[in-house]
Amino acid sequence: MQKEQKFYGQAEFAKGLEGVIACETKMGHVDGQKGRLIYRGYTIEDLAEHSSYEETTYLLLFGKLPTRKELDDFKEKLKSYRPIPKEVIDILKKLPKDTHPMSALRTGVSAIGCYDKKADSRELDDYTEAGIKLVAQVATIAAAVARIRRGEEPLDPDNSLEHTANFLYMATGEKPDEYLEKVMDVSMILHADHGMNVSTFSCMTVISSLSDMYSAIAAGIGSLKGPLHGGANEEVMKMLLEIGEPENAEAYIKDAIAKKKKIMGFGHRVYKAYDPRARIFRQYSQKVTEMKGQKKLYDIAIIVEEQVLAAYSSKGIFPNVDFYSGTIYYSFGIEYAMFTPIFAVSRIAGWAARVLEYLPQNRIFRPRGLYQGEMEAKYIPIDER
């Protein structure tokens, strides 16, 4: 479908800024027509199979794959930044019990920024260091939020564990085996970056005023919270649980299609082919759900996909990254309200990297709105209205 576009004089107007080029980047490329995703020249399939989240994060931040020593040093730096101030944990504990975990995560990021004495420095090296800190500390905050929601005490980081294994341990209290650690690592790689999406653009818009890294990332978290972005995986899980049994899936989806209801986890503003991330998640979902006694979720998801593709694949609507990811997280024992925070734990790499890429070429964002209101309104005194 062509983007909605109008011309007013010399000005081009595209709803939602669709298709508008906001900057130049070497960070990543989304090929929506062919269903390809590339980070710094490397395909997502190659990185998911061979890389780790720490290595992929290094690639995004610094533009190249690290040497062994560079990766080891980077991992040690991340580990050194994992702990967060006790005062921040206390703030999270004092939030209302029904606070959405993304709101709690956003609050935690704002709070740790207050403890960084170089947060307001405008030096690129200090922005970079803040970005690295946040890669480590967003994971710690999200894990603390998960435990506080269950009435449990947050756990200290375990520096014998790699980044994603440590996150799972802090969130669930259980250390994953080698295979499940790999699955979580792949998940984090798949979510690390994805072009100029709304949360990334939110981060870059904030940083373009030369604000601090913490404010920019808090803005990204706020954008990611919405159900049209990161919150979609939570909605997918609610749908699968509502369907309940594989034998209910076909009728449920046919009814939704007949009533023209939006089916979460399908379609994408950019992809008009199968989302490559969804394809990878699908193969892991089958094995993880079976290992964890949740195979029913995968079976339901397969039937849902078959029904939706039969109805809509000719229109370029296919599963997106949110469709299968939730079945994996749920099988790990993670409540679906925490799915979007996990998305943020991964996407912090891309947010920070794109902010750092933009700063040297920075120009404050200043789009225009097309005014369509009155031009000659006369003020009427309040007693005469």
Main sheet record:
3 strands, antiparallel
- Report how far the terminal alpha carbons are from each other: 47 Å
In total, the number of domains comes to 2
What is the number of strand segments? 5
> Can you list the strand order of the major beta sheet?
3-4-5
Q: What is the mean pLDDT?
A: 93
**What percent of residues adopt helix (DSSP H or I)?**
55-70%
Number of helices: 16
List the secondary-structure elements in sequence, H or E.
EEEEEHHHHHHHHHHHHHHHH
Output the radius of gyration. 22 Å
The CATH superfamily of the largest domain turns out to be: Citrate Synthase, domain 1
**What characteristic shape results from the CA principal axes?**
globular
Structural class: mainly alpha
Question: Which topology of the largest domain does CATH recognise?
Answer: Citrate Synthase, domain 1
Give the CATH level 1 class of the largest domain: Mainly Alpha
Proportion of strand residues: under 5%
Instruction: Please give the CATH architecture of the largest domain.
Output: Orthogonal Bundle
Low-confidence stretches: none
